[in-house]
Amino acid sequence: MRNFGFEERQEPVAQRTFGGAPSTQAPAQAAAAPTRSVAVLGPTLRFKGELSADEDFILQGRIEGSINHTQSVTIGSEGVVQGNIHARVVVIDGSVEGDLHGTESVVVNATGRVTGNIFAPRVGLVDGAFFNGRIDMGARQAAAQGPAKTAQPGVALSAEETERMLSSKQ
């Protein structure tokens, strides 16, 4: 897997007991863990328009339009999207024609096909994935710095402006 600023996140696994006496820690851990709802749209689904929600989302069908989610969006191996995707985490196993905007990360797995641009602070492309577009991992940093001054042809820059431009490209 080619990682571009992407570190694997380890999530805790619930403790289970098989046979024997039940663990007294398991119910306390289960009660303390927040419940996450997941919406799954099956392979026979055909949808046109804008889709938005606040829970995790798994698509195995076909969507023509944009997806705007506050949590994670997973396009399954049978999923097809023609439109842009905005979410906290975007995982692609299927096919997408459009831009991917991940506020946390974007991952294109081996079965994934993306034709479009990726905008995220962390990006992962697994060997075998098809990707045609550009990757922008600095959108959040550039927005925090404010608008960048660009060089105008035929207009001289001061020494300070030149130094600032050179240091921002490193």
Secondary structure topology:
Elements: E1 2-4, H1 25-32, E2 38-41, E3 46-48, E4 51-53, E5 56-59, E6 62-64, E7 67-69, E8 72-75, E9 80-82, E10 85-92, E11 95-97, E12 100-108, E13 113-115, E14 118-119, E15 123-125, E16 130-132, E17 135-136, H2 139-145, H3 159-168
Parallel strand pairs: 2-5, 3-6, 4-7, 5-8, 6-9, 7-10, 8-10, 9-11, 10-12, 11-13, 12-14, 12-15, 13-16, 14-17
Antiparallel strand pairs: 1-15
Description:
With 170 residues, the protein is mainly beta. The chain has one domain (34-168). It has 3 helices and 17 strands. The strands form 2 sheets. Strands 1, 2, 4, 5, 7, 8, 10, 12, 14, 15 and 17 form an 11-stranded mixed sheet that branches. It has a 6-stranded parallel sheet with strand order 3-6-9-11-13-16, with no helix packed on it. The chain is elongated. The two termini are 25 Å apart. Residues 6-31 and 141-148 have low confidence and may be disordered.
Overall tally of domains:
1
Structural class: mainly beta
* Strands, count: 17
Query: What integer is the average pLDDT?
Result: 77
- The dominant shape is elongated
Ranges where pLDDT stays below 50 over 5 or more residues in a row are 6-31, 141-148
**How much helicity do the residues have?**
10-25%
Major beta sheet summary: 11 strands, mixed
Counted by DSSP, the helix tally is 3
Order of helices and strands: EHEEEEEEEEEEEEEEEEHH
What is the multimeric organization of the chains shown?
single chain
Radius of gyration: 21 Å
| Terminus-to-terminus distance | 25 Å
In terms of DSSP E residues, the strand content is: 35-45%
